[in-house]
Amino acid sequence: MTFDPENNVVKHCSEGMVSEGLGQMEKAKSLFEQAWNEAYTDFEKFIAAHFVARHQQDTIGKLKWDKTALEWVLKINQESVKASYPSLYLNIGKCYEDLKAFSQAEWYYEQAYAHLDYLPDDGYGNMIRSGVLAGLERIEKQLQ
Q1: For residues 82 and 70, what is the distance between their CA atoms, to the nearest angstrom?
Q2: Given 92, 101, 103, 113, which is the most exposed site by the fewest CB atoms within 10 A?
């Protein structure tokens, strides 16, 4: 996935990440919302929604924004964005799990699992793989 550092949405999200790292959560949230408000392309909407989701105060809000990010990324016809699928499906599955909607959580965790091959073989990829497997294990216990 290629990020254009001159793109305003990317700039806002980058600045938001820096603010998060400095513990300036309200500033980060504001920058991510600004990115969403300026987003025009499917890619920009996907990126902005993903970051807005991180700053929701409740599970329903997070679920809405994670699903929005997934909706937009699925419209992008580029192989490189498929590496985002497992994380998005994982996040949505976790929201449904937290809401005790275990059948829906299972479906999203299974989708995340089905897309694991798109992940890089690095620390990030391993973290997402572990999260997906842990989610599937928790759901299996809930559905027994």
Answers
A1: 11
A2: 103
Q: Write a three-state SS string for 75-133.
A: CCCCHHHHHHHHHHHHHHHHHHHHCCCHHHHHHHHHHHHHCHHHCCCCHHHHHHHHHHH
Task: Say if residue 24's pLDDT is above 90.
Answer: yes
Per-residue model confidence (pLDDT) at position 1: 53
pLDDT mean over 62-85: 96
Which two tokens mark 60? 């329903």
Query: 79: burial class by Cβ within 10 Å (0-12, 13-18, 19+)?
Result: exposed
Q: Is-above-0.85 flag for pTM?
A: yes
Task: Report how far residue 95's alpha carbon sits from residue 107's, in angstroms, rounded to the nearest whole number.
Answer: 12
